[in-house]
Prior knowledge:
The complex is a heterodimer of chains A (110) and B (873). Chain A is of the alpha+beta class. Chain A has helices at 8-20, 26-37, 43-56, 82-100, and strands spanning 59-66, 74-80. Chain B is an alpha+beta fold and 873 residues long. In chain B, the strands form 3 sheets. In chain B, strands 1, 2, 3, 4, 5, 6, 7, 8, 9, 10, 11, 12 and 13 form a 13-stranded mixed sheet that branches. In chain B, strands 16, 17, 18, 19, 20, 21, 22 and 23 form an 8-stranded mixed sheet that branches. Chain B has a 4-stranded antiparallel sheet with strand order 15-24-14-25. In chain B, strand 1 and strand 2 form a beta hairpin. Chain B is elongated, with a radius of gyration of 34 Å. The model of chain B has no long low-confidence stretch (mean pLDDT 86). The chains are: A alpha+beta (110), B alpha+beta (873). The interface between A and B is medium-sized, with 22 and 21 residues.
Amino acid sequence: xxxxxxxxxEEIVLLTVGVLYDEAYxxxxxxxxxxxxxxxxxxxxxQSALRRLEGKGFLTSRQGEANPMRGGKPKRFFNIxxxxxxxxxxxxxxxxxxxxxxxxxxxxxK
Amino acid sequence: MKKAADMLLxxxxxxxHYLDISGDLEELHWINENNYSRRRAEWHYLADVxxxxxxxxxxxxxxxxxxxxxxxxxxxISARNLSHHKFFTFINVSGLAIGLAAFMLxxxxxxxxxxxxxFFSQSDQIYRLTTDQVRDGVIGVRDAMSFNPSGQVIAExxxxxxxxxxxxxxxxxVFRNSGMTQNERGVIAADSNYFQLFDYEVLQGNIETALDNxxxxxxxxSKAKExxxxxxxxGQRMEILSGFEQTFEVTAVIRDVPENTHYSFDMIMSIHTxxxxxxxxxxxxxxYYTYLLAQEGADLDAIQDKLPxxxxxxxxxxxxxxxxxxxxxxxLYSDFxxxxxxxxxxxxxxFLTIIAVFVLVMAWINYINLSTARAVDRAKEVGLRKxxxxxxxxxxxxxLTEALLVNLMGALLxxxxxxxxxxxxxxxxxxxIMEHVWQSPVFMFxxxxxxxxxTLTTGFYPALVLxxxxxxxxxxxxxxxxxxxxxxxxxxxxxxxxxxxxLIAGTLVVTKQVQHMRSIDxxxxxxxxxxxxxxxxxxxxxxxxxxxxxxxxxxxRQQEAIIAAASISNVPGGGSSDxxxxxxxxxxxxxxxxxxxxxxxxxxDENAIxxxxxxMLAGRNFDKDLAIDSSAVIINExxxxxxxxxxxxxxxxxxxxxGTDPGNDKYPIIGVIKNYNRTTLKxxxxxxxxxxxxxxxxxxxKLKESRFDEGxxxxxxxxxxxxxxxxxxxxxLDKRFENLYKEDRRFGKAFGxxxxxxxxVALLGLLGLTYFISAQRTKEVGVRKVLGASISEIIFMFFKxxxxxxxxxxxxxxxxxxxxxxxxLEGYAFRISFPWEILALSLLAISAFALGTVALQxxxxxxxxxxxxxxxx
Lengths: 110, 873
């Protein structure tokens, strides 16, 4: 996986950004991950992952509208780039081929 | 707090990220604010901000072009500075270490106390059904127990209640295990629903049906091991001697019940075993603990309103009312009669929280005070640095780095201190809070949080002050402390003194109250008397036991080392729930109105009053030869007051009637005894009626003074001769009372120990402060000496400063202590009057310590030869 450096949590974040498509901003992503994976996500962990992913070119972002709930501050929406898609596909395929190559006997676990 | 957190975020976060991240935080905060309390939401916000401290989000530090070198330089200069001023470093590091360690340990204890009953997966939906006595809208006696059918009827009538369980707690049962008998205190009876509410981990057996059949028994893991070793406990049979005609079968084993529950047990038997008692009690007696399970999100008040009135079931007018208590608040907030075990106290937790914060604040104040006091020494350094081109920001970073290093050393030392003192702490609290500090992730996390918080709190102000100096002024030597700086420092010292004063006085008041309760005359002889429980037998053997008991007492009385022996229903020194009571009201037939309150009932034989050395105030004792005495009653003073009589002699000869029905039995009052304390002195003496019964569940034996050992031996031998099957479990009455004050003693000890630590930190700070101040005034002292001042005059000059500080502390502290401690004392029925002498003593102690320290430091300076100190002027 050297070609696309991406951690486990980063991968989850990236996928979630994809799931949310046009509505992927901090709070929405956080809640989506918490809902689907039932794991706690701190704003810090999420934001640093997002910025790292953006830095690596897997994500792009644009500024959105502000609203009073947010103290008049704008949202930042994220979208997956083509490069990000490649990274995800690469990861999935690599895993898939590993899965496929596990011999049946290995599953006879008691 | 939110604002400060936001400022912090703006300060460290990369600029182009700040806007949308803080927008996210605002939105989350908005959501949290709607779901939780405001304070909790703000803490959340702060925690989120602190968790944002990540490399990828932090601003590039570009104060100087060679930023890494610069950072390295900050540390190098800081380290150099700290090692140069070892005294300053020592005081701060040790103060912070003590403060932080004490704070963290107390915090852990508080967290433990607050964690009670929260480990069940539905714990926020479980309520305990209790019984209140409400008359004219005033809540009277609140009882933790309820009628045994109530759980079921409430579950049927209130849709929000989706589960219930009824349990009964046995006092003590005697088990027979491979020929040996042993007493077991932790036995409860419950139905199978119990485990639906309280999801203890099941190790063996089918828990859903484990309690369905009578004579089935569920054991805790350690009890199973104790009884059966490595054998499989399932299906094993056990014999309980306390009146059960069948043996019990072990049907399941659960993991040991953790310490943090208000209702702990080792064994549960099926409640169907005592079906007869359940049916007999029915809606007649509330002796059961009932727990209800509510739907998720159900509102307590709404359910409370839907509870049916108890008169629906009792078939008559009643002032008893159902009441619900959230499970999670029972341990700290419930103080009802008949609590299943000694409970904690939200008030002591509050006190300990305050002390914890105080200790830490003391250490932080030390750092701020000492660093600003040293400002003079460093003014020239700052001036020179500025001249050669240092930015203000760089200087701030420099001083913050110093604070960081000191706090870091403090935190590391605190970790070691906490770990080393953990065994003592656990034994002082009489609970194993944790085994090692690093086993608690929360502990470690909080240590880091408070280390960062400490660095910022202590570092910022001194850094701002120190970096503000104007180089031209300070290098010319024209340096004066700013007035606000001095005022702030004095203010902080006043805070420290006030806190110290409050802690010393508080400790002494608590100690004095606990001592008072232990030493107060309880109204009977507690030192020479032992109490124990008589054997319990099945119904059909009861007559035989009674005869046996009577000859047992007779034999005891013939022993030389034994003065008296008596049969009694309640051994003094028992818990508040350890007694029967009647709450149907009581009156003097034909004379008084019915007084509706709880009356306590005890049974005595004719020797009980003499054995306990109780004093008869009027009338006479029971006489076993008078047939009428089997329905006669003796009452205590408290009962006389309750009935509204002034003259006790008037009461004797009247007839006591319980309940409201005029047809109820009337009991002739034959005597009045002086009040004595049956249970803790936190509670007033219970209004009690004593009935005559020659054989009761317990015995008290008075031993000859100075021949205790002989007496106990004789007692044990006689017991073994009469009741070889039952173990004898005897305790001196004064020991029983000591046990009642365990919680208060523990609180007193914790209060004292941590106050002492806070005090030590404060003294350390004072020592440092006087050291720097006197050192700075060396030249002034020199000039004064040249002009003819004596050493004592100079010391007194320094005193004046501190006397005003102590005076201010007294003005703030004394009223505060008075109000806080008076309201604490209100919680005790037998309390000391507010001890002003203790307050004066504490004030004196503080002054003596402070002035002593000042004298010590200034004396050093004052005795210097002015020729030396003024050499360079």
